[in-house]
TrEMBL record:
GO terms for biological process: inflammatory response; intracellular protein localization; neuron development; retrograde vesicle-mediated transport, Golgi to endoplasmic reticulum; spinal cord motor neuron differentiation. One of its GO terms (cellular component) is endoplasmic reticulum-Golgi intermediate compartment. It is found in: Cytoplasm, Cytoskeleton, Microtubule organizing center, Centrosome; Endoplasmic reticulum-Golgi intermediate compartment; Golgi apparatus, cis-Golgi network. Residues 601-617 have a biased composition (Pro residues). This is N-terminal kinase-like protein. Its main location: cytoplasm. PROSITE patterns: PROTEIN_KINASE_DOM (PS50011).
Amino acid sequence: MWFFARDPVRDFPFELIPELPEGGPPGPWALHRGRKKATGSPVSIFVYDVKPGAEEQTQVAKAAFKRLKTLRHPNILAYIDGLETEKCLHVVTEAVTPLGIYLKAGVEAGGLKELEISWGLHQIVKALSFLVNDCSLIHNNVCMAAVFVDRAGEWKLGGLDYMYSAQGIGGGPPRKGIPELEQYDPPELADSSDRVVREKWSADMWRLGCLIWEVFNGPLPRAAALRNPGKIPKSLVPHYCELVGANPRVRPNPARFLQNCRAPGGFMNNRFVETNLFLEEIQIKEPAEKQKFFQELSKSLDTFPEDFCRHKVLPQLLTAFEFGSAGAVVLTPLFKVGKFLSAEEYQHKIIPVVVKMFSSTDRAMRIRLLQQMEQFIQYLDEPTVNTQIFPHVVHGFLDTNPAIREQTVKSMLLLAPKLSETNLNVELMKHFARLQAKDEQGPIRCNTTVCLGKIGSYLSASTRHRVLTSAFSRATKDPFAPSRVAGVLGFAATHNLYSMNDCAHKILPVLCGLTVDPEKSVRDQAFKAIRSFLSKLESVSEDPTQLEAVEKDVHAASSPGMGGAAASWAGWAVTGVSSLTSKLIRAHPTTAPTETNVPQRPTPEGVPAPAPTPVPATPTTSSHWETQEEDKDTAEDSSAADRWDDEDWGSLEQEAESVLAQQDDWNTGGQMSRASQVSNSHHKSSKSPESDWSSWEAEGSWEQGWQEPSSQEPPPEGTRLASEYNWGGSESSDKGDPFATLSARASTQPRPDSWGEDNWEGLEIESRQAKAELARKKREERRREMEAKRAEKKAAKGPMKLGARKLD
């Protein structure tokens, strides 16, 4: 019947790739590349064609088929499937390459490293130890042609055609009949008598010596060449000489040879071999040992072979994260190995793990992800960012840990181009408004301003018009000097997004107020920005036809291309202030809420502050506003980032012990909030965290968060100038800033006018004084009322007498 006439080769689930054979061990087998029909996964297929009159070779091939099918060991060629017919034998194994071809390709690429060879020889010797000591089998064919290399660079022992039992079961060694293989036989085999005493492993260890010589020196021309070690490393020469000694009893057991080479200073005593041995036993290691191993692994990955990292280290890292408790320590080596993957492999293997990690409540893992987002952001698509990543990331804006808030702000530089219209223009702006107005850490407020300036080009036209001017104007009133500088540079970097009317009526008045700022760095940047905007206005005034060209970007839709022009306009803030933030966090883990009530300076006089270098006044492109101090604290940042694992971050699921006090809003109610914070600092808050957060939502909402800046209100009594504080420098605190007397913050007293007897500013100054005095009286009256009410409530809550009636 036709059913019994079907070709078994055609029904075999594997097929040969129509290419020339790759070669293989000298003998009957031919090595072909193949693939599985169902999945297309690559395999290697050894093919033997049965020929008439070659019964002896056929029996050898069938014996090899049987041995390979029954022997299972990590260092022996892995059998997958097989086919035996009257015409041929097919043996399917893992995809491998003959060692000779692999070494030749390595030489063309610059040569294999000794690390790779040391681990490869370790695997071959371990396979021989398994055969001799555990199975009592003699391989009888150890040579270059019997060794294969898989895609991870692992060496596998094959060529089992001439294997026989060391106990004499099944007869003696089969006859080879192939001169290329017989040249590796030890000299004692030529003596047919039994006078030579030898161990069962002696012949295979001689052949191992031949293999070592060929790996370092190329094909072996004759047995006499073994006397010259050639390029064999010095640390391996003594052990090599034991293998090729004339006395077979001196040749060590494979297990003993491994022990000798693993001794201190030995050829196989290196980090690469230790890493591989740990990975082989990682499933039985303790969690503490795994943590230590992954922490040290990233330092060594740069010296390891690329294929080894991709195909052996990466699967173990993914397994450790998914099924183990490795945690955040897996991230650094994971992203380091990810650099070796193609875009398709990265999307398939790494991205699902990253998305899953963002939903973790482990603070250490979250901050590691934020720090290393630059390495994987290009592989994330917009739907994934908006639906699976951004909802988890925004929780960092409300975190009680300043380091996580800061890293969350900086991550927006990378996420903004992929955010949707709602997430970018509404949700993100709400969080930025809250951070810029209410965060107690000055560097975080500064970084928020910097980030807003960098992502301004991605915002919609209506959002830009509503947000940018108000946000940068608010930043110029920040008590933290670098935040004021960031506000000025924010105006400069986004100068092409403002109309001429906004430049003249909204921006220049704000900048002019900064020309008498107590800090010289702020004044310098203000003068440069003023000159820039004035030259822009003057050019349009001279030639009104330029107005359309100058304002072409004002009403334009969001254009990602503009983001690159301002990509480094305030990099000093993101890098330099980042390290400053780390210092503040470590020096003062919980900052007092009234910390922002006084102007601050990051460094004393005479010490370079993290302020930008002078900027050209030409207003043509945003790149003119680039600063040169991005690398100032790079080394410090990297060292600080490496210490995140040493800190106890806790869990995001743990409820915060206390809610941070609300900070001053520089637009409305600022002075009253300061007074209430000072007067009530000794009382504990009775509000629950939920009620406090809801009040933040109300006060830090879009409508109130980005309001147009109002005129500066005078400070309350007792507020000291920045120049009056001793910031820790060598200069006396009594030495004031020469511009302090000119500052609107410093004094509200009218100064003598040099324009003549008439004081042109008298009315305005008197009006300001009257408003300030009225506001002060109202605050004092309100404070007395609150104290009276508290005293009354305290008296009413005294001990009640028996039978007394409680009054409402």
